[in-house]
Every structure is written in structure tokens, then in C-alpha cells.
Design brief:
By secondary structure, the chain is mainly alpha-helical. The protein is built from 10 helices and no strands.
Length: 243
């Protein structure tokens, strides 16, 4: 059983890796990964509305098909338009936000089927979804911490059926913060020693808040589970008494 789950998991990872590799190859072949590429695009169609529509579409594409950093597109554009970073931020944020919501719905409508296929056990699937639900406290920090694949988190949030408006709000805010960091912060704060202190201090505060939120969420979940078990035991005793 476990061997079958491992083999299926490896197959899923291989498929995701193949899609990501193909997606990046498409971007490279189409010329959408370097400063020189985007310079040619700007020289061709100019700094027009459609140029920024293309940037937004590219960000949607990379979020959905490339589970890697958005900086492969954001940073070259930021370098090219260093005097108009608000355009870079707005177009990138909109594209990344839309892509995140698409992944949420992919997880919401397809994640459960994937779990059923991987685990081949309805009870195991429910337990897995239960753990995903308990991890809701980590969703906010996970969407902000750079080395955590937020694209996969968005899909898992859909699989666990997190409240859509919660995901919408958190995704909008966190995608905005991360995009602003890519556009403005990464190239500025990391140049100074005090900038690193700000970044590390912010990460520590974020992790501490996550821990306390998780602790409160976990205690609430345990209390509800205990109450549910007590109710079930009470109903069972009542049924036996009637017999």
C-alpha cells in the first residue's frame, strides 16, 4: 500500500516537474525571461497598455505552470522600468493574484480526486484533508516566506476547501507584499546590513505570530473534537439504554 502511494506521488512530482520545465522552456524560446528580451518587446510595441497586459498574462502563466519564484519575470521588468516601478508592481500583482486564485480553484475541484487516487482510501483522504484544515494558521506565513512554494500552498488551500473570501483576502494582501518586495525591497534592503536586520526581524515576528495562531487554532480543533466525541458517546449510551 505504502509503496503504491510512494510510486504514485513520484509520478505526480515527475508530471509537475515536466510541466514546469516545459513552461520555462516556452518562456525562454518566446523571449520572456531577460532584460534584453523585454527591451525588444518594449521597442516593438512601446510602453503601451498592451505591453502591460502581456506582462500580466505572463505572470498568470508562471504562477499556474511554474512553481518557482515570480522574480524570473518581475526583476527584469523592474530593471527595465526602474523609473516607473508602479507599473511593474501593478501589472505583476494583478497577474500573480489572478494566478493564485486559479490554483485555488484547481485544488478545490481537482485536489480531492487527486488525494483519493494517491491514497486509495476514503478514511485516509479525510484524515489528510483534516490535517490540511488544521494547517490553516500557516497559510498566511507560508504565502509570505520566500522559500515556501506558495503556488502549491494555494492549491492545497483549495483542496482543504478554505473559505474563498479568506483566501481572496490573504492572497491579495500577501501577493501585494511579496510583489512589492520583489519590485522595491529586494534590490534596496539587501544592499545594507540594517536592511538584512529588518528582513530577518520581520521573518522572526511572522513565525512567532504563526506559532501562536496555530496554537490557538489547534486548541480550538481539539476542543471541538473532544465535544464531538462526548456527544457521540452520549448518544451511544442513550441508544444502549433504550435497548
Amino acid at each position: 500500500m505504502k509503496r503504491k502511494i510512494i510510486l504514485k506521488s513520484l509520478l505526480v512530482i515527475a508530471i509537475v516537474a515536466a510541466i514546469a520545465g516545459l513552461g520555462y522552456l516556452i518562456l525562454r524560446l518566446c523571449g520572456f525571461t531577460t532584460v534584453e528580451d523585454f527591451t525588444r518587446l518594449r521597442d516593438t510595441i512601446g510602453d503601451t497598455f498592451w505591453f502591460w497586459v502581456i506582462i500580466t498574462a505572463l505572470q498568470i502563466f508562471q504562477v499556474v505552470f511554474l512553481p518557482i519564484t515570480n522574480q524570473i519575470i518581475t526583476v527584469p521588468i523592474a530593471i527595465l522600468f526602474s523609473n516607473e516601478l508602479w507599473k511593474v508592481f501593478l501589472s505583476s500583482w494583478i497577474g500573480i493574484f489572478i494566478g493564485t486564485i486559479i490554483l485555488y480553484f484547481i485544488g478545490r475541484f481537482g485536489g480531492n480526486k487527486l488525494l483519493n487516487w494517491l491514497l486509495s482510501d476514503a478514511d485516509e483522504t479525510e484524515r489528510c484533508k483534516e490535517w490540511l484544515t488544521r494547517g490553516k494558521a500557516f497559510y498566511v506565513s507560508g504565502m509570505l516566506i520566500p522559500f515556501i512554494p506558495d503556488d502549491i500552498l494555494s492549491t492545497l488551500a483549495g483542496t482543504a476547501k478554505y473559505n474563498f473570501f479568506f483566501v481572496l483576502l490573504v492572497s491579495g494582501i500577501t501577493r501585494g507584499i511579496c510583489t512589492a518586495f520583489s519590485v522595491w525591497g529586494f534590490g534596496y534592503l539587501t544592499q545594507f546590513w540594517w536592511g538584512w536586520i529588518i528582513l530577518i526581524g520581520g521573518l522572526i515576528i511572522l513565525l512567532a505570530l504563526t506559532f501562536f495562531i496555530w496554537k490557538g487554532t489547534n486548541n480550538k480543533w481539539l476542543t471541538e473534537k473532544r465535544r464531538k466525541n462526548d456527544n457521540e458517546n452520549g448518544d451511544s449510551k442513550q441508544t444502549n439504554g433504550m435497548k
